[in-house]
Amino acid sequence: MPKRILYWFRNDLRLHDNDGFFRAMEAGDEVLPVFVFEPRWFDGLPTLDFRKTGIYRAKFLLESVADLRHSLRARGADLIIRVGHSAKLLAQLAEDSEAEAIYASKEVTQEETNTESDLSKRLKPINIDLELFWNSTLYYPRDLPFWVSRLPNSFSQFRTEVEAKSSVRPPIPTPDHVPFGGGIDAGELPTLETLGFTSEQIQAASQPDPRATIRLEGGETAGLKRLQRYIWEKELIKTYKDTRNGLIGEDYSSKLSAWLSMGCLSPRLIYQEIKRFEAERVQNESTYWLIFELLWRDFFRFVALRYGTRIFKPSGIRLNLNKIWLNDLDLFKKWTQGQTGIPFIDANMRELNATGFMSNRGRQNVSSFLINDLGLNWTWGASYFESLLIDYDPCTNWGNWNYQAGVGNDPREHRYFNIYGQGIRYDQQGAYVKHWLPELANVPAEFIHSVYTLSPDDQARSGVLLGETYPLPIINPNKWTVEEKNR
């Protein structure tokens, strides 16, 4: 009988540069590719009144799995799809198909590693091996110049040492043919409806908000197209460092994070393409800066590997038990709904709610506002991002929130953003605010970030009624303008 390897796809939904899948094809005469949808991914968070995985991320996931199935079928194979308890289903499938082993990518955060442990325990009595492969970062752990247990506390030190002493492995080619072990029902791809989303949610996700400036379509195919377009067709990487703090448009940043988050794109492939661009066209600070961002992503992955569940706790990786966080649901809902009365915050939150996307500049501001100005439990904000952001990645998301909350890898004790100053700096004419807050469309540019200062006559001229058509601020914002004047 041919040697069969069951390959369990997880957050590596691609065929290019997939170490685990490549090893499965090397080791087995036949490969059984499998993906399991876990219903618990879509559970509601009762206290916070939203789902762990919201509609936008769920849609992107379905598209990514459908694209993977299409790619496998084009190479003579198929993707076996199941819905249920991963460890239980995989162990049963491996036994029924007489697989010798299950291969998969290694994950680092608690829920995923718990599933790995559960699966391993179920496989031992039936003498089936579980082999896990590192698949998610530029650098493999064994290629780092230090043990992960000795990971530097600062990103700067991490970057300096890694760039000086380590190298990025070349990506593994995409297979032309996949030797498939058939005879098993491939199963149907679930729908948003079967995953429990309402018809209203599905309709909203299926008809993108006309104000959205990019359509993020899931899958390796779309990710590779975006990479090709961004680097080679439009050469946008040449100006990345200058444009990356933009707020409106498709091309001010790479937008590759969504495909990276589900493994539709390999960071090593991106690195290779940047290096090729530098060799063939131009090398400058901007081309390096995208590599710099990939290094940040690596750093947060290794932070999660080192500190485990601490990244998910209010005390963070520093175990800072002295910080007290408010658990005020009313305030939190005003933040989530973009009803804080602070235009720059509300515009960013409404973009997130309408599209599943928010710029990096926006994320830093809304998280700083929740943490420093509202004093709310930062883990609530991280959970909201987890639900809504299409490009959610547990290590990057929770690592960044640790960082902002002052309980993570930040040499600065107090990372604070002057929201008014940020609005003036990055949206001086208020184009972004007006894009997402149409009720402020007629407010003069000089008042757009301090709309709460408008007199009754100015409100009437601008078609705004504070407290009715646009909310009054939920904090006293005067501290920001005083801060700006004192600079």
Outline the fold blueprint.
Elements: E1 4-8, H1 19-27, E2 30-37, E3 44-45, E4 50-51, H2 55-73, E5 80-83, H3 86-96, E6 101-105, H4 110-123, E7 129-133, H5 155-165, H6 199-206, H7 220-233, H8 240-243, H9 257-261, H10 267-280, H11 285-307, H12 329-336, H13 343-355, H14 360-373, H15 378-388, H16 394-405, H17 419-426, H18 431-436, H19 456-462, H20 478-485
Parallel strand pairs: 1-2, 1-6, 2-5, 6-7
Antiparallel strand pairs: 3-4
Describe the structure.
It is a single chain. This protein has 487 residues and is an alpha/beta fold. The protein folds into 3 domains: 4-135, HUPs (Rossmann fold, 3-Layer(aba) Sandwich); 136-171 and 218-308, Serine Threonine Protein Phosphatase 5, Tetratricopeptide repeat (Alpha Horseshoe); 329-485, DNA Cyclobutane Dipyrimidine Photolyase, subunit A, domain 3 (Orthogonal Bundle), CATH 1.10.579.10. The protein is built from 20 helices and 7 strands. The strands form 2 sheets. Strands 5-2-1-6-7 form a 5-stranded parallel β-sheet, with helices on both faces. Helix 3 runs parallel beside helix 4, helix 11 (285-307) packs across helix 16 (394-405) and helix 13 packs across helix 14 (360-373). The longest helix has 23 residues, at 285-307. The chain starts with a strand and ends with a helix. The mean pLDDT is 96.
